[in-house]
Amino acid sequence: MAANKKHRLLLSSSSSSFILVLFLVSGVSGQSVTDPDGSAGGGGRREMVPAMFVFGDSLIDNGNNNNLASFAKANYFPYGIDFNGGPTGRFSNGYTIVDEIAELLGLPLIPPYSAASGDQALHGVNYASAAAGILDNTGRNFVGRIPFNQQIKNFENTLDQITNNLGAGDMARALARCIFFVGMGSNDYLNNYLMPNYPTRNQYNPQQYANLLTQQYTQQLTGLYNLGARKFAIAGLGLMGCIPSILAQSSTGSCSPEVNQLILSFNENVKTMLNNLNVNLPGSKFIFMDTAQMFRDILMNSRF
Predict the structure, then answer these.
(1) In this structure, what are the phi and psi dihedrals at residue 233, rounded to the nearest 5 degrees?
(2) Nearest to 271 by CA among 235, 238, 241, 240
(3) One pLDDT digit (tens) per residue for the chain, 304 residues
(4) Which N-terminal residues, if any, form the signal peptide (predicted)?
(5) Beta-sheet pairing, 46-47 with 31-32
(6) Among residues 75, 230, 214, 68, which one has the least CA distance to residue 150?
(7) CA distance 182 to 117
(8) Residue 56 is inside which H or E element, if any?
(9) How many CA atoms lie within 13 A of 187 on its CB side?
(10) pTM for the full model?
(11) DSSP-assigned letter for residue 86
């Protein structure tokens, strides 16, 4: 599957993606990838990890909302205009960052949970859902969505299926080498804390809310660890004070320093949380992907 060259160049040119891959797979030997149909996966590259499991929101959803009663869908044009086969449910013209990382790892594109079955799940599953959040009530204005807690339950269902085929021992050893990519939190601000129809902003000041989110996030990531996950890539939040919906609320079209400060507080909490998890969960490796800095790099070093 091919995406627009310019789109993929932006992703590939980000040093963060390459550093992420090299860091996570250091010391892991490769083996060839074969898709269920017998073709080579990951563009013919060698498989650097057994699989990648993806959790998140619209930034990495690849079709899980397609059949939900939801206002958060992307299975129609102009989404997918540069993706081979057209719209898939990705909120993008082509690849998402997890598609690019999968290719760098020699894996085939990871299927959505809603469509993964049988051998398809052996290279990983994408559980991400647009409008989803760390908190279960986040995104309710979009009606249907799959919160992080439910995404983890869906992963448990996948584990049961794979364990029946591989056996518990082989499954545990393989899981310890897999990558768990998690990108959560943006909707907990955009479609919860900053929404006038939510009481959240009246209940918590910014730091209290960031603390609430990371307390829940800690429990959820620990839950994945208890299910066998060991290698985690955790994406921080970008500067959401500069996204179009926030810019449109400014009479001057300027970024919102207030919203950006909310995000920076959350990101700092997440960094501290990951440091603690690395210390307290034996054998784990949690890394923080600085999304805000990644896109600053792209903008400063872009070549068109």
Answers:
(1) -115, 115
(2) 235
(3) 344 443 443 444 454 555 565 566 555 555 544 444 334 455 566 889 999 999 999 999 999 999 999 999 999 999 999 999 999 999 999 999 999 999 999 999 999 999 998 788 999 999 999 999 999 999 999 999 999 999 999 999 999 999 888 888 889 999 999 999 999 999 999 999 999 999 999 999 999 999 999 999 999 999 999 999 999 999 999 999 999 999 999 999 999 999 999 999 999 999 999 999 999 999 999 999 999 888 778 778 877 6
(4) 1-30
(5) antiparallel
(6) 68
(7) 22
(8) strand 52-56
(9) 27
(10) 0.89
(11) S
**Residues 229, 233, 235: CA angle, nearest 5 degrees:** 135
Q: Which domains does the chain have, with CATH numbers?
A: 5-301 (3.40.50)
Tokens representing 283?
């054998």
Query: 80 is written with which tokens?
Result: 């997918």
DSSP label at 235? E
* Amino acid occupying residue 198: Y
Report d(CA 229, CA 134) in Å as an integer. Answer: 18
Cis peptide before 78 (omega within 30 of 0): yes
Angle between helix 257-280 and helix 291-301 axes, rounded to 10 deg:
120
CB atoms < 10 A from the CB of 113, how many?
25
Residue with structure tokens 């960052």?
A: 97
CA distance 250 to 255: 8
Question: Encoding tokens for residue 26?
Answer: 């250091």
Q: Which single residue is written with the structure tokens 């990101």?
A: 267
Residue with the two structure tokens 């932006």: 10
CA distance 184 to 59: 9
Beta strand spans in 63-137 (E): none
CA atoms within 13 Å, Cβ hemisphere of 78: 1
List C-alpha distances in Å: 197 to 140, 148, 215, 258. 10, 22, 24, 19
Within 142-238, strands assigned E span 179-183, 231-235
